[in-house]
Design brief:
Layout: E1 20-24, E2 30-36, E3 47-53, E4 62-67, H1 68-74, E5 75-77
Antiparallel strand pairs: 1-2, 1-5, 2-3, 3-4
Length: 79
């Protein structure tokens, strides 16, 4: 089994160091990947711990695990 190179948590205050950043097509949602819970993002239930900004966070972020497939189906990678 391959080692998970993105398994170490990036501190929340260091979003500029996120492993990946994804943005919705209209630019209103942004996902900052702070930790990958699996080494293989293609697994059906692969998840990332993310900081997410949206119109509902009013300039802040919500934090939690998100399915990779949900992010990839609604956004494009910008970093």
């Amino acid at each position: 089994m391959a080692k998970n190179l993105c398994g170490k948590m990036i501190p929340i205050k260091e979003l500029d160091k996120a492993y990946e950043v994804w943005e919705s097509e209209d630019g209103t949602w942004k996902w900052y990947c702070l930790k990958k819970n699996q080494g293989d993002d293609e697994k059906p239930y692969a998840s990332w711990f993310c900081a997410v900004s949206s119109p509902f966070t009013h300039g802040g972020y919500d934090y939690g695990d998100t399915y990779v497939s949900d992010i990839k189906s609604n956004a494009k990678r910008i970093k």
